[in-house]
Amino acid sequence: MKKSFGAKTLAYPAPLFCVGTYDAQDRPNIMAAAWAGICCSKPPSLAVSLRPATYSHGAILARRAFTVSIPSSAYMAHADYAGMVSGETENKFETLGLTPEKGGFVDAPYVAEFPLVIECALTHSHSIGLHTQFIGEILDVKVDETCLGEDGLPDIRKVDPVIFAPVTRGYYAVGEYLGQAFSAGKTLKK
């Protein structure tokens, strides 16, 4: 039997992303966001939903660009802090001792210390209640070479991304390898 929790933002897993933007004074900013993820394959696109009250919201609209820096578990507290204070009143890069790196494809900064970075050009924005969903076409993905596997592709265990549990507000690490996508299910085919 299942217990009903009603209409809640309960879906597992949620990411811990840091959205990077420049403000009107060209000051780099990051904010933590969990309402985000890949939303289209062609063109490759990512969606992130932010409240209009956030400082990053206006910056995305003004610059038509944003980045997503994915922290490793070593930077979980840094990313969490980036979601606790406003970039309007504090330079979070300076406070956290992080390095803002200028995006090579979009007018937005990313966190140099974080192992995986996605550069997005804003293509759509939709008001969906309390949040605005920003959809950005992915123009480039950068991955630290130390996070690549023997096959030359990003290894999720080496990237070591943080997973967010919305209802309990807890952070978790990636678990064990379970099987190969689009292959494991073949064992059930009749």
Automatic annotation (TrEMBL):
Q: Does the keyword Flavoprotein apply?
A: yes
Which Gene Ontology molecular-function terms are recorded?
A: FMN binding; oxidoreductase activity, acting on the CH-NH group of donors, NAD or NADP as acceptor
Per its UniProt record, the required cofactor names are:
FMN
Q: Which InterPro entries match?
A: Flavin_Rdtase-like_dom, Flavoredoxin, Split_barrel_FMN-bd
Alphabetized UniProt keyword annotations? Flavoprotein
Asked if Transmembrane helix is a keyword of the record, the answer is no
Q: Which residues form the Flavin reductase like domain?
A: 10-157
Q: Which PANTHER family match?
A: FLAVOREDOXIN, FLAVOREDOXIN-RELATED-RELATED
| Recorded family membership | Belongs to the flavoredoxin family.
Name recorded for this polypeptide: Flavin reductase domain protein FMN-binding protein
Its source organism is Oleidesulfovibrio alaskensis (strain ATCC BAA-1058 / DSM 17464 / G20)
